[in-house]
Amino acid sequence: MTKNKNSFININNSREDDQIEVMKKIADRAHCPFCEKNLRLYHKNPILREGKYWLVTKNQWPYKHTKHHLLLIYKQHAVKLTELDSAAGTEMFDLIKELEQNFAFEGGGFAMRFGDTDFSAGTVNHLHVQLVVPDAMSEDFEPVKIKLGLQWEKRV
Ligand SMILES: [Zn+2]
């Protein structure tokens, strides 16, 4: 039986049905889907940019009401901020600035969850930045919310 939470993923934080199916396969293999050697097994979107520390790609399961939902995935397996090279922070800002310009972002936000997935609400426990531009001009628009922490009843 698939355990919903291991050191690499937490299916309880998944949002979409097809995402849950992919996460169950990953859980059975007990490896990290964001480590470079495994990323291409599951992630179907192209790598848009590669730095020394980060890969840039589009989120395979973008949040609802987003115009752009990009991920910056740390190239080494890391789950805590203390595992990050401080120079990665500078590169992260440089890449986000470049994306802001290249995609002509009107505005948005970015977030990086870290650590225990019951606290972070992350599905994949490998440091990554969510970079979101909301689709704020569409008629059915609702604000995009980035969740932190998992409610008790979803913890299994
Ligand atoms: Zn990893």
Structure description:
The protein has 156 residues and is of the alpha+beta class. The protein has four helices and five strands. It has helices at 17-29, 36-42, 87-102, 117-120; strands spanning 47-50, 54-58, 66-74, 109-112, 128-134. A five-stranded antiparallel beta sheet has the order 1-2-3-5-4, covered by helices on one side. A hairpin with a 7-residue loop joins strand 2 and strand 3. The radius of gyration is 15 Å and the shape is globular. The site of zinc ion (ZN) has 5 residues, from loops.
How is this fold's topology laid out?
Blueprint: H1 17-29, H2 36-42, E1 47-50, E2 54-58, E3 66-74, H3 87-102, E4 109-112, H4 117-120, E5 128-134
Antiparallel strand pairs: 1-2, 2-3, 3-5, 4-5
Bound molecules: zinc ion (ZN).
Bound molecules: zinc ion
Number of strands: 5
Shape descriptor: globular
The number of helical segments is: 4
Strands side by side in the biggest sheet: 1-2-3-5-4
Specify the CATH architecture of the domain at 45-150: 2-Layer Sandwich
The termini sit apart by 13 Å
Structural class: alpha+beta
What can be said about the biggest beta sheet? 5 strands, antiparallel
CATH superfamily of the domain at 45-150: HIT-like
Helix content, binned percent: 25-40%
From the alpha-carbon coordinates, what is the Rg to the nearest angstrom?
A: 15 Å
- Can you give the mean pLDDT? 95
Low-confidence stretches: none
Strand coverage percent: 15-25%
Along the chain, the helix and strand elements come as HHEEEHEHE
CATH class of the domain at 45-150, anyone?
Answer: Alpha Beta
